[in-house]
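not sure who needs this but someone in the group chat was asking about DUF2845 domain-containing protein from Abyssibacter profundi so here u go. i didnt clean anything up, its just raw.
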Amino acid sequence: MRPSWRPIILAVLWLGLSTAADAGFRCDGQIIDTGDNRLKVRSLCGEPDLIDAPGQAVIGHALQADQETWYYNFGPRQLIRVLHFRRGRLVEIDQDGYGFRVTEPGRCSGFDMVAGWSKFRLLVECGPPDDTEIGRVLRPVRPEDFGGHGAHLTGQRIEVLRERWIYNFGPEQLLRTVWIEQGVVTDVEVGGRGYPER
């Protein structure tokens, strides 16, 4: 009996097409994909839940930024979309797990914070930090850099935006210092006792 290759070929073609379609997503019945400008995305998807352009000045209603990251939370049945813009054009689309119902920003405990959270998820779960610092640092290239294509650059260094957020949970708990690189929590450090709120 000869094996039939037809089902295998159809499965491979379907996987290839579904992967290409997953690169973008739909808003208002139209596909949002890389290369789109901010105006199109905002017109079809509405205002993002968060625009992250750290260290950039806001002039009027315009963000003066070379790079921006937009977060869209479409609720618990859809994935959070993370859109990376460079010079006003969409260059990359990421996901940040399933969304959630929008409530007032929470105030988590220090035990809830974990590496791998996006800045958006940290803000929603824990609220704004009590103190922040932003700077650019050089660090070695990791395999996951450049959309997962950074392995061939091992030994090289890359400039990244690093943020330090400090959360003060009061004198009964310990301070938490959260390190964020390129919009993702990379480490959570435990500090000394917190301070009374004034």
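also The longest helix spans residues 6-22. if thats useful
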